[in-house]
Structures are given as structure tokens and as C-alpha cells.
Design a protein that fits this description.
Blueprint: E1 21-22, E2 26-32, E3 35-40, E4 50-54, E5 59-62, H1 68-82, E6 88-90, H2 96-99, E7 110-113, H3 114-144, H4 151-170, E8 181-183, E9 186-190, E10 195-200, E11 210-214, E12 219-221, H5 239-251, E13 256-258, H6 267-289, H7 312-328
Parallel strand pairs: 5-6, 6-7, 7-8, 12-13
Antiparallel strand pairs: 1-2, 2-3, 3-4, 4-5, 9-10, 10-11, 11-12
Helix pairs in contact: 3-4, 5-6, 6-7
Length: about 325
């Protein structure tokens, strides 16, 4: 991969509108002139965040949410905001909540790392098959959590009932689109208004995660390498690689970091996530030394600042079990 450069942290951009535009699935937050974060709207069918970037003569869409409905909304927003249809679609990683919205934009080239394309064609297909087979049952199980005594389980229901409703309704219509354009390391886009670097950071949240860096705007679209006020999901990637990637992201020196989940963040949110992942590793190591097996873990709850983060159930327990299994060999 080419040597990374430092992003110039820009002066905070004052949007031309008084309030962020809201759709059914996303809330659009201006970050710079011609740059928007598309933040998942609670109850919508996006689940993951996305982005729209006007290069000047071309429009990039970064990630597309869980459903074709979310992707359709992004395409319409891109046309309204930039005056043109999306030119290229950029995929950060293979997970369904960032990929399947692209089904609504079949005529626009989809760009991903070579590794991510292979993952879509393997693990992505397995994920789709699982959603088709188990979606109805998982929706029923998640709805039942709304009446649980545990507030973390009730919070899970509020978040994940719309997720499973969206999958049950849309997964049968998904053909699972494969990226037509692939790259290794870094891909640079140049327009009349700005340039943008699409950079693969290797294994972290998944076996390969790519981010979009806007050098002149102080903005980085991080995909799921960053969760803000939300628990990460470790089990498809490598925690040590993730910590390394967070260091790379911080080294870009950006003013705004757009996460895959949660509100737009800053470098402080990179630090918070790094500390949380390192803390999970330390907790798992302590449990392992005490003879606790992943199969016997029970249902631990986070006790630090992460207790108030979204996805505390089921991700906190899932992450500790994953780390214990690694330690068990």
C-alpha cells in the first residue's frame, strides 16, 4: 500500500441549511461543501451509515445500507444534492448492512478491494442464505426481547426488530451484487472540487476493511472500523489488526470521522473504541486465567462507559466469547 499522507483538518463547515435533511432511512449531515454523512435513522432500513461525496464532475456513494430501499434513497439524495446520479459506489466491507442497498443501483459500477469482492462471493453468500433460512425465527426471538426484564435486551429489541423486519421483507429480492471494479492498497479519485483516497487497511472488523479519505476536507468515512457510542462486533475480524487500523485512522489527522454505526465522531471516538477493544482483550485474558470457558461465560454486562452504548446486548457477550475461544486455541 502506498505511504499514507496526513489529512488536513479543515475549519468546521457551516451547512447552508439549519437542520439536517431526514429521509425514511438516513439523516443527511453536511460535513463540508459537497460532502455529506448519511447517518442511519432509528427505525429505518439502513442500519449502517453511508456517505455522499461530490468530487466535481462525479459523485461517489460510500456504502449503501442494508436494503434496496436504503440504496434507492441514497441514489435519490445524491441526485438532489449533487445534480447527478451516483458515478461510483464504494463498498467498505462485505457485511450485509453496508452492501445490499447497492441492489437498487445496478447500473452504477461497484468498487471494492479485491479481498472484499472475494468475501462477498463467499461469506456474503453464506450470510444471505442464513438470513433467508432463519430470518423469520430471528425476528420472532428479537420481538420477544421487548418484554424482557433486562433493559439491555429491551434496547436490543428496539434496535434489531427493524433490522430483522427489513431482512425478512427484502432478502428474497437480493441477488447479491459483486463489485465490478477492484483494487489493492489505495485507489485515488480526482475531480474538479476535490480528490479522495479509497484505502484498504487490511484485517480489522472483517478480513479486509476500506476507508474513504478526503485529504482537503478533514473527513474520513471509516465504515465499521469505527463505532461511535456503540459496541463493535469482533468475531469476523482480528482485534489486533483492528487496533492497528484505528491507529492508522488517527494518523490521518482528520477533524471528522464518519463511523459505520453511530453519530459522526472525532479522534476522541477512535481513542474510546481502541480503549474498549483493549479492555475486552484484558477482560478475556483474566477470565481465561481464572479457568472460565467461552461455553460457560453466562451473560456479563459492561460496567464502564460502554454500558450505555448501543448494541451492548448481544455484542458484549459475543465479543468476550469470541476472545475466549481464541485464547482456548
Amino acid at each position: 500500500m502506498a505511504r499514507r499522507g496526513r489529512v488536513r483538518a479543515s475549519v468546521c463547515y457551516a451547512p447552508r441549511v439549519n437542520a439536517a435533511a431526514a429521509g425514511r432511512h438516513f439523516v443527511l449531515e453536511p460535513l463540508a461543501d459537497g460532502v455529506w454523512a448519511c447517518v442511519h435513522r432509528a427505525g429505518g432500513w439502513a442500519v449502517g451509515n453511508a456517505g455522499i461525496v461530490d468530487l466535481g464532475g462525479a459523485t461517489l456513494v460510500f456504502d449503501a445500507g442494508l436494503t434496496p430501499e436504503a440504496g434507492e434513497e441514497l441514489g435519490a439524495a445524491a441526485r438532489t444534492l449533487t445534480g447527478r446520479a451516483p458515478t461510483l459506489l464504494l463498498l467498505s466491507h462485505f457485511h450485509n448492512d453496508h452492501l445490499r442497498g447497492f441492489e437498487a443501483l445496478p447500473d452504477v459500477p461497484l468498487v471494492a478491494s479485491e479481498a472484499t469482492r472475494a468475501l462477498v462471493d463467499t461469506l456474503g453468500r453464506e450470510e444471505l442464505a442464513s438470513d433467508l433460512e432463519h430470518g423469520v425465527a430471528r425476528l420472532a426471538e428479537t420481538r420477544a426481547l421487548a418484554h424482557d426484564d433486562d433493559p439491555l435486551r429491551r434496547a436490543c429489541a428496539r434496535t434489531f426488530v427493524p433490522y430483522w423486519e427489513a431482512l425478512v421483507a427484502t432478502a428474497p429480492r437480493v441477488a447479491l451484487r459483486l463489485p465490478e471494479v477492484t483494487f489493492g492498497g489505495r485507489l485515488r479519485f480526482r475531480g474538479r472540487r476535490r480528490s479522495a483516497d479509497f484505502v484498504s487497511l487490511g484485517s480489522g472488523h472483517t478480513p479486509d476493511d476500506a476507508v474513504l479519505v478526503l485529504p482537503d476536507d478533514g473527513v474520513v468515512f471509516c465504515g465499521d472500523l469505527l463505532f461511535v457510542a456503540a459496541h463493535p462486533y469482533l468475531a469476523d475480524g482480528d482485534p489486533n489488526g483492528w487496533l492497528r487500523a484505528l491507529g492508522v485512522l488517527k494518523g490521518f489527522g482528520a477533524a471528522r470521522y464518519v463511523p459505520g454505526h453511530g453519530p459522526v465522531g472525532t479522534a476522541a471516538d477512535l481513542d474510546a473504541l481502541s480503549a474498549h477493544i483493549a479492555g475486552l482483550q484484558a477482560t478475556a485474558e483474566g477470565l481465561h486465567r481464572a479457568g472460565v470457558l467461552a461455553s460457560d461465560l453466562g451473560d456479563p454486562h459492561p460496567e464502564d462507559a460502554a454500558a450505555t452504548w448501543e448494541f451492548a446486548f448481544p455484542f458484549y457477550r459475543a465479543n468476550l466469547r469470541f476472545l475466549l475461544r481464541r485464547l482456548e486455541g
